[in-house]
Amino acid sequence: MANGVLFIGWGPVTPGREKQAVEVFGQVTQYYERLRRDGEITGFQPVFLEPHGGDLNGFILIQGDQNKLSQLRLNPEFLHNITRAQLVVQNVGVVTGFVGEELNRQISDFQAQAHELT
Fold it and tell me: 4-117 architecture in CATH?
């Protein structure tokens, strides 16, 4: 059961890098599919956003065990793919998120801290 996510967002394609952006996206989705098959993640969902005036053009949401996702962030192949993405699209970012029981734990901790501080 997934208790964590990685949100990998990106902005506009760097002008002149359109072809490379398509290639990198294909390579990255193959990488995440392999991680899913190998049980390193439970799944992933790529999302392209319609034009909306902001700097977020799309993202990939990777689901899995929070500990495995934390290790994944330091994996040389993961970092290699993030570096390649930064060379073809702007505003690449990786953010940890919480779901399931870990989300409930985060909410409970927030409530306890808010109660203590008010």
Answer: 2-Layer Sandwich (3.30)
